[in-house]
Amino acid sequence: MATFNEKKTCSQRMENFGRFVWNPDTGEVLGRTFVKWVYISLYYAAFYVIMIGIFALSIYSLMKTLSPYEPDYQDQIQSPGVTMRPNPYVDESIQLFYNMFDNTTYSPIVNSLCDFLSVYDAANQTKMMNKDCTNQTNIASILYSSANLKHACQFTREMLGNCSGEHDPTYGYKYGKPCLFIKMNRKIKFTPGNNTTPLVQCTSKSQNLGKVEYYPGNDTYGTIGIQYFPYHGKKMQPNYTNPIVAVKLLNPKLDVEIEVVCKVLGPGIVTDNPHDPYEGKVTFKLKIENKNPLSIKN
Ligand SMILES: *[C@@H]1O[C@H](CO)[C@@H](O)[C@H](O)[C@H]1NC(C)=O
Ligand SMILES: *[C@@H]1O[C@H](CO)[C@@H](O)[C@H](O)[C@H]1NC(C)=O
Ligand SMILES: *[C@@H]1O[C@H](CO)[C@@H](O)[C@H](O)[C@H]1NC(C)=O
Ligand SMILES: *[C@@H]1O[C@H](CO)[C@@H](O)[C@H](O)[C@H]1NC(C)=O
Ligand SMILES: *[C@@H]1O[C@H](CO)[C@@H](O)[C@H](O)[C@H]1NC(C)=O
Ligand SMILES: *[C@@H]1O[C@H](CO)[C@@H](O)[C@H](O)[C@H]1NC(C)=O
Ligand SMILES: *[C@@H]1O[C@H](CO)[C@@H](O)[C@H](O)[C@H]1NC(C)=O
């Protein structure tokens, strides 16, 4: 304590500091002998190498668990959502309203359908090297491209029958017999229950909906071929095109609003989730007017 309070001259302080940096009596440098310095350096070097090693190892093992072929988090709904084209979304509901007499009310719809369906042109499907899977028993071998790359099954316009746009470029809108296209959203690795082809059916509580025809399908159900499942993801299957079902309304009642629900039916496909109205089904309102705008004016 006494020495602490002792007043030192400046030269004494300098000398003390000099001894601290290099003490010729003990051979210490900065308070430690050379050998001690070597040891402490080795200790810290080893310490940091191990820390970096642990960090690198944890990053590496994290990256290993993330597959580039699948999203890391998938939503918890059991079955894919269902959407419809055209998709005129108004006031939180889908309202397909148009006037047969006034082509300006439906030509935007028809144009959007043309765009939507262009990917199904046979030429586009061929260009994308999608394979014809009809009547094939070993789909996996047809779709094989390389270990991490798969082709997809073709879905072509011809499968849409009278809704292909080939004979009627207005997809029936002009004649009050509109075509709708039902699509199940992609869900990686989703296969319908029991390998059963999912069916599509559109119904209404009222009789006004009239007769319906499905392509591919018949006059009761549309079919989403099982060969299109499962989808392997964008990276592994870059050219996958969604199968769709065309729904042709043959004689819907005109000038009334009709509420229609189109469901995808099959084992394991949920259509009654109160929290997600689009899980397994799509609901919309339809109203086809048949009023000559000119006659209204007169
Ligand atoms: C609508 O019909 C009129 C008369 O038939 C025609 O001149 C016009 O080009 C059509 N418009 C569209 C967008 O198809
Ligand atoms: C499909 O082919 C047409 C021409 O045949 C082209 O205009 C269109 O962009 C193609 N669509 C896609 C999605 O490749
Ligand atoms: C996807 O389509 C492109 C052409 O659009 C083609 O070059 C490519 O080979 C296709 N990939 C597969 C896996 O079929
Ligand atoms: C698939 O098989 C059915 C009957 O087995 C036949 O009618 C149909 O033409 C075949 N389709 C193709 C594309 O070969
Ligand atoms: C398509 O429509 C025509 C009448 O417009 C009808 O004769 C034919 O049977 C329909 N095709 C199919 C596959 O239902
Ligand atoms: C329509 O298709 C469904 C599903 O493929 C089938 O179960 C049903 O028997 C068919 N109905 C008629 C009338 O062909
Ligand atoms: C699959 O079929 C079996 C027997 O036919 C049935 O018990 C099971 O519930 C089915 N699975 C689904 C998801 O419907």
Description:
27% of the residues lie in helices and 21% in strands. It is of the alpha+beta class and 298 residues long. Strands 5-6-15-14-10-12 form a six-stranded mixed β-sheet. The mean pLDDT is 89. Bound molecules: 2-acetamido-2-deoxy-beta-D-glucopyranose (7 copies). Residues 161-162, 213 line the site of one 2-acetamido-2-deoxy-beta-D-glucopyranose (NAG). One of its GO terms (molecular function) is ATPase activator activity.
Brief characterization of the structure:
The protein is an alpha+beta fold and 298 residues long. Helix content is 27%, strand content 21%.
Helix content: 25-40%
Q: Low-confidence stretches at least 5 residues in length (pLDDT < 50)?
A: none
What are the bound molecules?
A: 2-acetamido-2-deoxy-beta-D-glucopyranose
| Count of DSSP H/I helices | 7
What is the number of strand segments?
15
Q: How many angstroms separate the termini?
A: 115 Å
Give the radius of gyration: 36 Å
Strand content: 15-25%
SSE ordering: HHEEEHEEEHHHEEEEEEEEEH
Identify the strand order in the major beta sheet. Answer: 5-6-15-14-10-12
- Look at the helices and sheets and give the structural class: alpha+beta
* Largest sheet descriptor: 6 strands, mixed
Mean pLDDT: 89
Transmembrane segments: 37-60
Protein name: Sodium/potassium-transporting ATPase subunit beta
Keywords: Cell adhesion, Cell membrane, Disulfide bond, Glycoprotein, Hydrogen ion transport, Ion transport, Membrane, Potassium, Potassium transport, Signal-anchor, Transmembrane, Transmembrane helix, Transport
GO molecular function: ATPase activator activity
